[in-house]
Design brief:
With 202 residues, the protein is mainly alpha-helical. Helices cover 48% and strands 11% of the residues. The structure holds fe (iii) ion.
């Protein structure tokens, strides 16, 4: 059985930036529903028992893929946020300045991509070879499905921001990019050490 991973912070930790009500719905209802539906689909098909989330993402399509992709995306997304956000440092900071100029330039690119993405989905910062790359995914699509290496993902589904920001996706994205990204976790993914936190056995 898959489980709903606990948030790595209190659901009130971000104040008005991301309200506890948003976490109650986004984590406690939306993410939980993906877990519950995946468990039901896996329970109905013995061939799927014991497979990890990543194994199911790679091998499934349709309804099951939508659930397991969303479990992975959300599990990774919570880790990308921190109420004590500090600026990038070390190797990551050097990569950002080499490729984008300043952190503000990278954040502007991420904001444009996330705000311009049509409909539901995810905007990611990936490691592509030895370069950083910005890419979006529709609906439940997941970097793992494509063999991509995500460093950071942003949830652009309306359920991520509608309670606090109504229809203003740009304001939500700008707020979390500037105040709530866990750049230490992003840097951990340069060595592939963070993504394993989002996998789990069924
Ligand atoms: Fe979401």
């Amino acid at each position: 059985m898959f489980t709903l991973p606990p948030l790595p912070y209190a659901n009130s930790a971000f104040g008005d930036l991301i309200s506890s009500e948003t976490f109650d719905y986004h984590h406690g209802k939306h993410h939980k529903a993906y877990v519950d539906k995946a468990n039901k689909l896996v329970a109905d098909d013995k061939a799927l028992a014991g497979k990890s989330l990543v194994e199911l993402i790679r091998s499934s399509s349709g309804g099951l893929f939508n659930q397991v992709g969303q479990i992975w995306n959300h599990s990774f997304y919570w880790q990308c946020l921190s109420p004590d956000a500090k600026a990038p440092s070390g190797k990551l900071a050097a990569m950002i300045s080499d490729q984008f100029g300043t952190l503000a330039d990278l954040l502007a690119k991420l904001k444009d991509e996330a705000t311009g993405h049509f409909g539901s989905g995810w905007t990611a910062l990936l490691l592509d070879g030895d370069k950083l790359k910005v890419k979006s995914y529709h609906d439940a699509d997941c970097p793992v499905k494509h063999g991509d290496t995500p460093l950071l993902i942003l949830d652009v589904w309306e359920h991520a921001y509608y309670i606090d920001y109504r229809n203003d996706r740009a304001a939500h994205i700008e707020a979390i990019l500037n105040k709530a990204i866990d750049w230490d976790f992003v840097a951990l993914n340069l060595d592939g050490k963070g993504a394993e936190r989002a996998d789990q056995k069924g």
